[in-house]
Design goal:
Radius of gyration of chain B: 36 Å
Oligomer: heterodimer
Largest sheet of chain A: none
Largest interface: A-B, 41 and 41 residues
Strand content of chain B: 5-15%
Structural class of chain B: alpha+beta
Shape of chain A: globular
Largest sheet of chain B: 5 strands, antiparallel
Number of strands of chain A: 0
């Protein structure tokens, strides 16, 4: 009964997804048509996205907050009929937004930002909140904030981040350790669900982790110039995606082309000729989206997997809408907006 | 008693320079609940800075109190004091920041010392292990060899990953001990790539063990060295504590004054979040009980004659969701309020179910747990617990008394049914009759909740919902028609074609209404309407049958006491007495608890869910706390 309900709910939600042509059309339409389209698509709250509370100054943050609020609301609805394990997985999936909040808090404390300003820049987590962000924002300094976080559900990943920061005093290591800790937690939760969720779910996780690890690898290695051993340590240790042995081989390669040439055949053929990290990301993301879309079709996967696939696609769509709204607001040429919405990285530092 | 107090929306136009005094007056008045004002003519939020600084100062003050204990409260009442200005608050916040930073440094120092103590203990254990290693530590750790080596610890969860990463630098890791989640290990590899390996180790939270040179060649000297380290650490700890004590002595007197200042600033800080303004003008919007409006005006006239303006209006039916709810309960009913609030606060204008809830709760409890003796024990228990649980104990007293009343009806005293003749009937003497009465009670209760819901919807101006929804008039018609149909099939009432026709018409009306009023595409609306209707229909009848548990629990009570008598019957006199006392104690505590929860469940899910929106906002007036 619960599975049938969820299947029906996901099928109804699936109609909300945007196809590429509609998104592309949104780049050029008039302001009035844009407003109408968003309202028709059930996203009226995004229309005023760039208007701040006092209606005066543009506010990109509030648009981001509205997008996350929409995703959290849909996740809440989809979670209703799920059992503990699956519900726990989707709850943890939303914790990415809270981890981003923690990073904002940590960076804010490093530069001595006032609590009110910090709180205004956080994404409200509503019923998904696992920490008291008001109390955290009022921590006097970074040390107090980290100690408070070590008494929170994020204790394990924060403790390692703190140790790394104490050794290096480099905020990058705080962010990197938090991201890695988060995704390793996600991987562990996914492993526990594999049997009931099936092969489609494993493929979905494989694509997700392969993309994150490969993009991080390229960025750390060739943008930040970190040594191979350190890059390897910073990647996610998980059964999903590229294996540890493969990653050790890849981090030792000199140059992006050499790394792409050493990938397994599946990825090598699909990433052949990619110019730069952004294109690698875009192509891998499109493949993951295609996989999610295939699983979303009725009867192709368990209801929970379809719900997860829907959430992945919905987030991708909403971020593309955000890119279009932001691009239009900044007066960027249509070509630049189209390029940006193909390459906007998600959930990484 | 059945509705929240009527409220009036007030808009106060005041001088921005007098905002803190007005807020203080409103807090002392104690019946003004601030609400957000629309940014129409007044676009600014003049009190934003005040609220932000107050938030920071209050948090720092609370942390200081938590760390150092609350200073002795000043008994002088706050009535005569005036609220601090923004400048006063900024100065106070700066002082609190200085004090808290100093305390935090001491506190952090103590935490570091604690960590050092733990590390010394680990080091002692490690050195003991090193003594037994057949390794020349001096050669191993010598900084000029070809081989670079480090001894240290890292989180157990990182060891595998670190080992894999280190192999890429030609280093190896060998663990030799573990303490908690920390693994002690030696890392060794070619010196030219030592920096690379240390980069990985730093990222993994590696902590170097600084083994003194003397200990490398003479591990036996470790104990003396460790003792010296401990003495040094204790001296540092003593100095930190002295510093913290000195700080406490230094700031404690002013901390109490700071808490009073913050208490006086609290009304404006709370009101400032929603107040609007422009230039020298500010507007405060809020809700006031209708009966208190004149008194408030009189106070404002006395304190700010001619320096304020005042708009008042009643909320419309459509605004009910934004209006807070103020309920004034008679003292005898007030103990039951937490049970209603466990479900939610009534929406403004909505029927307040406190009285029927309380009566029904007691009725259900008594019916399920009817026994003169057990009810009396419950009364005694509640009275004994009164100092600890406060007025909630009155629920226990009332439940116990009703239980005694039903005990008289059932003729049961601690399970003995031969002491008192039942005024009515013993549950097991006529179980089918009791089951029928319980079901009838359910029908009556559900009809009452549906009627209340219709009333709520009409008052809220939701006429279509009141008439056509599954919980509206159409739902009542459907429920009664199906009951009549079932009654006809059972031969209780006569059968006529009009009954199924009425049920079908009611059903069609509900489906049509839901299909029209729902959200989403037409297909989605029809699907949702069908699912919701199915759920509502199943819910109505399963909820009715759910009331059979009232009779079932009364049977259960008799059966449980019979089981105890059976257990006790074969025992000696002393054991018999002990078994009866223990058994009856279990019945009072365990069965009493289960019945209390079952009664609550019946009222919440079979009743409240049908008519009680419970999404009201409690009326929270500005108040003057004695201290924060």
């Amino acid at each position: 009964m619960a599975s049938a309900y969820l299947d029906t709910r996901v099928s109804l939600y699936a109609h909300r997804l945007w196809d590429d042509a509609t998104l592309d059309h949104l780049v050029d339409v008039s302001e009035a048509e844009l407003v109408e389209t968003l309202a028709l698509r059930g996203l009226p709250q995004l229309i005023g996205g760039f208007r701040a509370a006092d209606g005066a100054t543009p506010d990109a943050r509030s648009l981001e907050q509205r997008i996350v609020a929409q995703l959290l609301e849909e996740t809440r609805v989809l979670m209703r009929p799920l059992g503990d394990g699956q519900r726990g997985f989707l709850t943890y999936w939303t914790a990415r937004f809270e981890v981003n909040n923690l990073k904002t808090l940590l960076r804010g404390k490093l530069i001595g930002e006032r609590p009110a300003a910090l709180l205004a820049s956080l994404t409200p987590m509503g019923g998904f909140a696992r920490v008291d962000e008001t109390a955290l924002a009022h921590a006097e300094d970074l040390a107090e904030l980290l100690r408070r976080l070590e008494a929170s559900p994020y204790a394990a990943i924060v403790r390692e981040a703190r140790h790394a920061f104490e050794q290096t005093h480099d905020p990058f290591h705080l962010d990197a350790a938090l991201d890695r800790g988060y995704y390793e937690g996600l991987g562990r939760r996914a492993e526990a669900l594999e049997r009931e969720a099936g092969a489609g779910f494993v493929t979905l996780m494989d694509r997700l982790f392969a993309r994150i690890n490969l993009v991080w690898l390229l960025r750390y290695r060739f943008n930040y110039g970190l040594p191979p051993a350190q890059v390897y340590y910073l990647l996610i240790a998980s059964r999903y995606g590229l294996s540890g042995a493969r990653l050790r081989d890849l981090v030792g390669r000199e140059g992006i082309d050499a790394v792409l040439a050493a990938l397994p055949a599946f990825w090598r053929t699909r990433l052949a000729g990619a110019h730069g990290i952004a294109e690698v990301f875009a192509r891998m993301e499109q493949l993951a989206a295609a996989q999610a879309r295939a699983l979303l079709a009725p009867g192709k996967a368990a209801a929970f997997v379809r719900a997860f696939a829907y959430l992945i696609l919905r987030e991708r769509d909403l971020r593309a809408v955000r890119g279009i709204l932001r691009g239009r607001h900044l007066g960027l040429p249509a070509r630049a907006i189209r390029q940006a919405i193909e390459r906007a990285p998600v959930g990484s530092h | 008693m059945f509705r929240a107090e009527p409220l009036i929306e007030l808009r106060l136009w005041i001088l921005a320079s007098e905002a803190q005094d007005v807020a203080l007056l409103l807090a002392r008045f104690g019946a003004f609940s601030p609400a957000p004002a629309a940014p129409d003519a007044l676009p600014d939020v003049p009190g934003k800075a005040y609220a932000e600084v107050w938030d920071e100062a209050r948090t720092r003050c609370a942390k200081l109190v938590e760390l150092c204990g609350a200073p002795t409260a000043d008994a002088t009442p706050l009535a005569a004091d005036v609220a601090p200005t923004l400048d006063d608050l900024v100065a106070l916040n700066a002082w609190l920041k200085t004090v808290w930073s100093a305390c935090l440094a001491c506190h952090e120092g103590q935490a570091v010392i604690e960590q050092e103590r733990a590390r010394l203990a680990e080091l002692e254990a490690t050195l003991a292990k090193l003594e037994h290693l057949n390794v020349d530590l001096d050669s191993l750790l010598r900084p000029d060899g070809l081989l670079a080596a480090d001894i240290g610890s890292l989180p157990a969860g990182s060891v595998k990953r670190v080992g894999e990463a280190l192999t890429m630098t030609g280093f190896v890791i060998a663990r030799f001990a573990q303490s908690g989640d920390q693994v002690f290990a030696v890392v060794a590899g070619p010196r030219p790539r030592h920096g690379e390996a240390r980069g990985v180790l730093a990222q993994a939270g590696w902590r170097e063990l600084s083994v003194p040179a003397a200990l490398r060649t003479h591990p036996g000297a470790a104990r003396a060295w460790l003792e010296e380290e401990r003495r040094r650490l204790e001296a540092r700890a003593g100095a930190t504590c002295s510093r913290l004590d000195a700080l406490r002595g230094e700031f404690a007197p002013r901390l109490e004054a700071a808490r009073r200042q913050l208490a006086l600033a609290q009304p404006l800080a709370e009101a400032a979040r929603v107040a609007r303004g422009k230039g020298g003008l500010a507007a405060l919007v809020g809700w006031v009980p209708e009966r208190d409006v004149a008194a408030l005006r009189a106070r404002l006239d006395a304190r700010f004659p001619g320096r304020y303006a005042f708009d008042a209006r009643r909320p419309s039916a459509g605004e009910a969701r934004g209006v807070p709810t103020l309920v004034r309960d008679p003292p005898w009913l007030a103990p039951f309020r937490p049970l209603v609030e466990g479900y939610g606060t009534p929406r403004y204008g909505e029927f307040d179910p406190l009285l029927p809830f309380s009566l029904l709760y007691l009725l259900l409890f008594g019916a399920m747990f009817g026994d003169v003796g057990h009810g009396g024990a419950l009364v005694l228990l509640a009275i004994l617990l009164m100092p600890r649980i406060g007025r909630l104990a009155w629920i226990g007293v009332a439940a116990g008394l009703v239980s005694m009343l039903f005990g008289l009806l059932y003729g049961s005293v601690f399970g003995y049914e031969d002491i008192l003749a039942p005024v009515w009937v013993s549950p097991l003497a006529d179980p089918f009759r009791l089951l029928g009465i319980a079901t009838g009670l359910g029908v009556g209760f559900l009809l009452l909740t549906l009627v209340i819901n219709v009333g709520n919807q009409l008052l809220a101006g939701q006429f279509a919902r009141a008439l056509f929804d599954a919980n509206g008039v159409a739902g009542i018609a459907f429920y009664l028609a199906v009951l009549a149909l079932l009654g006809g099939m059972a031969g209780v009432v006569g059968q006529t074609w009009a009954v199924p026709a009425a049920a079908a018409v009611a059903l069609a009306i509900i489906v049509a209404y839901k299909s029209v009023s729902g959200e989403g595409s037409p297909g989605e609306r029809v699907l949702v309407a069908a699912i919701e209707l199915l759920e509502s229909a199943i819910g109505l009848f399963s909820n009715t049958l759910s009331f059979m548990r009232v009779a079932a629990f009364s049977f259960n009570h008799v059966a449980l006491t019979m089981a105890i008598f059976t257990l006790a019957s074969g025992l000696s006199a002393a054991a018999h007495g002990i078994t009866l006392v223990l058994g009856n104690s279990v019945i009072v505590v365990l069965e009493g608890g289960v019945v209390a929860i079952q009664a609550l469940r019946l009222v919440y899910y079979e009743g409240f869910a049908r008519f009680f929106n419970a999404d009201g906002k409690p009326f929270t007036p500005l108040r003057l706390a004695e201290t924060i």
